[in-house]
Specification:
GO terms for molecular function: actin binding; calcium ion binding. This is Alpha-actinin. Keywords: Actin-binding, Repeat. InterPro entries: EF-hand-dom_pair (IPR011992), EF-hand_Ca_insen (IPR014837), EF_hand_dom (IPR002048). This protein is mainly alpha-helical. About 50% of the residues lie in helices and about 0% in strands. It contains five helices and no strands. The longest helix has 13 residues, at about 15-25. It is elongated.
């Protein structure tokens, strides 16, 4: 409350609320940013493997992704390829996971 009510009046003005929400949401990732991060880890491939995720991410994050990523089914798929694109958009409610 001290951020949006620095005078401790017990009230938050609409302008103070808007300023606060703008600051809070400015640093959030988007589906595209997450997708680009996976693309970098995947070496520009349209899929990623569990091995790469385990190598590059903390163990809990890697397992979270591995458990939730659908198999990649593109023509260039390799055994165990995971679809980081649909996973990224699903994280942000832009598709179903």
């Amino acid at each position: 409350m001290s951020i949006v009510d620095p005078n401790n009046s017990g009230y938050v003005t609409f302008d103070a609320f808007l300023d606060f929400m703008t600051r809070e949401t400015a640093d959030t990732d988007t589906a595209d940013q997450v997708m680009q991060s996976f693309k970098i880890l995947a070496g520009d491939k349209p899929y990623i493997t569990a091995q790469i995720l385990r190598q590059e991410l903390p163990p809990d994050q890697a397992e979270y992704c591995i458990q939730r990523m659908a198999p990649y089914t593109g023509r260039d798929a390799i055994p165990g390829a995971l679809d980081y694109m649909s996973f990224s958009t699903a994280l942000y409610g832009e598709s179903d996971l």
